Amino acid sequence: MRQTRSRAARGATLASVAAAGALLMAGCAPAEETPTLTWYTNPDDGGQAEIAKICTDAADGRYTIETSMLPNDAASQREQLTRRLAAGDTSMDIMSLDPPFIPELAEPGFLAPVPQDVQEHAKANTLEGALAGAMWKDTMVSVPFWANTQLLWYRKSVAEEAGLDMSQPVTWDQLIEAARQTDTELGVQGNRAESMTVWVNALVEGGGESIIADPAAPANEIQTNLDSEAGRKTAEIISTIGREGLGSAGLPTQAENESMLLFQGDTGSFMVNWPFVWPATLKGAESGALPADLPEDIGWALYPQTMEGQESAPPLGGINLGVGAESEHPELAYDAVSCITSAENQALYFRDNGNPAADPKAYEDPEVLDQYPMAPLVRDSLDQAAPRPQTPYYNEVSTAIQLSFTPPSAVDPATTPAATDQFIEEVLRGERLL
Amino acid sequence: MSTAVESTPRPRGRAKSARATSEARLGWLLAGPAFFVMLFVVLYPILQALYDSLFTYRLTAPDDKQFVGLANYGVILSDPVFWKDLGVTVLITVVTVLVELILGFLLALAMHHAIKQTRGLIRTMILVPYGIITVVSAFAWYYMFSIDSGFINSWFSWVPGITADLNWFAEGSTALSVIMLSEIWKTTPFISLLLLAGLAQVPGDLTEAAAVDGASWWQRMRLVILPNMKASIMVAVLFRAMDAFRIFDAVYIMTNGAYGTEVLSLLAYRTSIGRLEIGMGSAISVILFLCVALMAFIAVKVFKVDLADRGGSK
Known about the structure:
Radius of gyration of chain A: 25 Å
CATH class of the largest domain in chain B: Mainly Alpha
Strand order of the largest sheet of chain A: 2-1-3-11-6
Structural class of chain B: mainly alpha
Shape of chain B: flat
CATH class of the largest domain in chain A: Alpha Beta
CATH topology of the largest domain in chain A: D-Maltodextrin-Binding Protein, domain 2
Mean pLDDT of chain B: 88
Radius of gyration of chain B: 26 Å
Oligomer: heterodimer
Number of helices of chain B: 14
Strand order of the largest sheet of chain B: 1-2
Largest sheet of chain B: 2 strands, antiparallel
Strand content of chain B: under 5%
């Protein structure tokens, strides 16, 4: 009895499996003709997923774009992408890449060559700073999607109290003095993370030096330039802020988000940070989490100068799109990249997610200007911005800087720069652990 | 004569061997697949790591792979970073295992003596932390102590040394305390479970006899219960120590090794996965493996932990 029942059940199961299989096959048939492109995106407010949908519709059945989200921080994103690319993962159709890590991927040939027409279009329609980050050894290896830069954000009330004229360029020394005077705290990133290298690089570049003189040199020949006037001034600024507690007690663990929270609080005064802080602050003020009049008190200016009278070199960030060398559909992927990086989509991304465009045309979009009154300043800042060292060994250089310049209070202007130079060179020669 | 010699043991031998062979065959059939899977997933990576550790090999420059012999080990063993990380790892292992052993024993006693109605409830309560994924517990502890979003500084501001400005993760000593606290909170239940099994196996008539002879609670504990539990205590210590030595998640999440909290497995991770230096990273992993193997060896040979004996009858 039991046996017959189970046999009958088995028969029914088989029949339903067969039916489901047939349905699946039928469902799959047209889908198989449409290649699916995977776009590895960095976490955002959903803008990349939205653009993927727009471009899938625009492709009119030639391909569909699926997004796959990468980890939160830049270092973990790089880890995952590099390992997948090194293993020859064929799903790496489109990747959102942080520019400093591009040489590491371009050097071993992990990125598919950019077609001529895509190159020409990008070269004609990209801000200069962002374009520099897309090149490796004079060849374009990725396509700029959006470009980021840090501004100096300030509380108008504090600047007034300190007697600073914010219509003129200010120096780090002036900010330090203002924080001392007004008993407020500076929003900087003292965490042992990529944001520390961003800060150090901007300060060194602002002093007229570059961390690496010849970034394309092989590992054992790379020489760093921290033990220079600019490097020592950099160490002095970071160390003063750290030792005097001007960056709050949270400084050694403070990344971009934490410094924004500090800036929004009662002791906030000046902050260097990416433009995402503006929509985030507006949202906070609207929802009641922050005082409603806070946005009115916030002003913005160009990144502070390292040396008085010498133009600053704001940090350069953003995302470029790369196509994996092992991708099964490189032509379609570059087709999709062209769609994603169109001026309209960049403007859309700027408006909805607060990430500034790499295409200058997006800055003329009236809606962008309405929502981001600082957009023209962002454009100026991007023109003035300096990239981080473009070397395949960027990870080593950056990690060594992070280890040497944190916690900020332990930085010694007399010894830290020279010791960091030696440390980086020994690590790159394989003589030391990192 | 030769036939006699041969014929006597034969039937016995044959009968034994037929049974033994079929048992051995059954054994292989049952354990064989798992054994080969283990060989493939455990032994193969270990050998591969040993082999890779003899090269300079960067994942993004496979063509520059070069045989360097034991040079990677030389760099590691002469680098202060390695010794500092080893020190931190040993410190975490010793402190957490010691505290967990004491706390775990107290909890095991509580579970053992709990009245029947509450026993299930108490066990469940004690086991909850162990059921939480380490990453989740690490995040919970991180946010509790974080200077930006944590509540510990304001709740415990009455404790000397804790102020609103105390940044727990900005200094090695305070960061390590939080890391060790979270580890202790999370894995004490594991030790207490093992110890509970040991407690349950202490013959009741022995303790009763001791009590009748007038032994105090402390004397019963020291002379009867603890000696009878030696095996399970040693197994608990060994397992937990080997586990604690490989600590990774809590450190990775709370500080990512910053400010003197880096442990050996994090160094191996940063070298192999972060820097993509497969050769150097493999060498660190091999050293980590040797450390754990040494701990197991010492436990088995010096302290005579018998992993097969769970009866506590020694």
